[in-house]
Amino acid sequence: MNKDLPQFEEDADDLKDLLQQFENLKSGQSNSFLDEDSFEQIIDYYDEQDQLNVAFLAAEMGISQYPYSALLLIKKAGLLIESKKYKEAIALLNKAALLDSTDVQLYIFKTDAYIAMNQHAKAVRVLEDQIEVFEGEDKTELLLELADVYDDWEEFEMVFDVLRRALLHDNNNEESLHKICFWTEFTGRFEESIRLHSDIINEHPFNELAWFNLGTAYQGLKLYEKAIDAYQYAIAIDEKFDYAYRNMGDAYIRMRRYAEAIDILSKHLEIAKPEDVIYEAIGHCYDKQRKYTQARYYYRKASHLSPTDDKLYYKIGLAYMAEENWANALKSLQSAIKFNKQSSDYNVATGECYLQMGKYKDALIYLLSAVRIRPNNAKGWQCFMRGLYVAGFYEEALGQLNALDPKISTKPVFQYYKAAILFRMGRQKEALLQLETALQRSPKLAKQFVELDAELLQHTSIVDMLGRYRSSLRRKK
User: Cα separation of 221 and 471, whole Å?
Assistant: First the structure.
């Protein structure tokens, strides 16, 4: 049996009695009496129940009975802010401050009112005037409120500065540590974060959040080894710190240490709720190791959690394509396109599958869609030109090349393609001139020419020209 249950039932009975006394007071029964704390509870109850009118009535009755209660004036001011009566709220808070200036909630409500009126400078002034007056948790609360003001004001550098002040005041405060982690990354102030959290760790070596923040700062500077060391300390302190496992996995991936990334991310799955991004990341690691069956397994697990995520079906399709399993690749790519018809990459990959299967008409439909979606994308045009070439539509390919925007058509790869097309059309003299121009501009891209059509190497003139340029490249080295 829950030990807290009797206490809960007792509290519920007490609240029920208070509400009945309030009803008696409303109906004019003279024997009803409520103290300040009771009115506060009643106001909070009706406020939480979204019965604002009754909460207002309770506040008015309480203030009439206790006209010098700063607590009840502040409560009423909060209700006025909820009702968007900001000026009335500020006037009431000023009155409350004369009675008791030690209630932090007074300044937070005043700040909320100024923010709502888009008067951020006044909100900042209210808080700055009080931050040095208060100590301990109250001071931290005001600093965190000030950070929120700067966030709403879109003064993002100041958000970091204020959170740094909050940690200099209380370097073990959990909320400040959580918030500054995000703002360090947002503002890119990684070096300052490293200094700050190193100092905190010197004083509190078992603060896992400080170690984690130190890791994220190192990771922001691409110092992945140091980041991993920091995350390992965080995990040593709290072995169920799931975000540390997640970030460590990301650091290993960026270092291309895929086996270690898989190990760490698998541990994340053991301690945290399964997430599509974690399954996807593990799939990515297997993909990079060319373990395509395992990659697809994890991409599918990710897709079960996020069934409308088109990029997962695309990645499954690419994993099949890497194994030249064109039919299964096609099924996955069609699922991707079902969710996102406007992806040039999906259309290109689908066109490539059809091309490999010898279904040229279908291939060209998708490849043409790709260039229509992104008409200025050179990769899309290259795939479309290759499709026309493989399908034997040389005249159409040449016409498309000649009609292309010069910014695209003058790229060396298209000059190689044009040379190949001209050879296939029997225009060998023009083809050799085009090939020579391409070789002069980018000899390293000659492999694109060979990959397009290896049979062209049967022409002695082509082999001789390629040989001369390879010799020239070797001499330059």
Answer: 43
